[in-house]
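Retro notes (design track)

What went well: tokenization of the new backbones is finally stable.
What didn't: we kept losing track of which sequence belonged to which structure.
Fix going forward: every design gets posted as structure first, then sequence, in one message. First example under the new rule, 100 residues:
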């Protein structure tokens, strides 16, 4: 499962339309370009929004959304056979790549 799929599937509904933007703007910009020129992070509970091409949210709001998403994922994992298969497959990939 990719980050944008995880956001679209498990994050609160107000984050879901921004799943591709969160992936592209935050994850890719930080990892590959080492910048957040098209993004803003506030310290509080500010809602996610996109104004003038700048995606922004409050860090505490994002933390709450991530907590909800993790809980939703774990709840669905208990019963969703496809999700279980994906999680086990990813675990096996990571286990094989681990250094002894």
């Amino acid at each position: 499962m990719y980050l944008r799929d995880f956001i679209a599937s498990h994050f609160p509904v107000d984050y879901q339309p921004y799943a591709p933007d969160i992936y592209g703007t935050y994850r890719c910009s930080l990892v590959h370009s080492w910048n957040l020129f098209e993004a803003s992070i506030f310290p509080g509970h500010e809602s996610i929004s996109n104004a003038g091409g700048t995606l922004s949210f409050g860090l505490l709001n994002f933390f709450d959304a991530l907590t909800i998403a993790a809980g939703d994922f774990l709840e669905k994992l208990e019963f969703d056979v496809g999700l279980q298969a994906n999680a086990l497959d990813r675990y096996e990939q990571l286990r094989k790549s681990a250094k002894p």
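Added context from the reviewer: Residues 3-97 form one domain.
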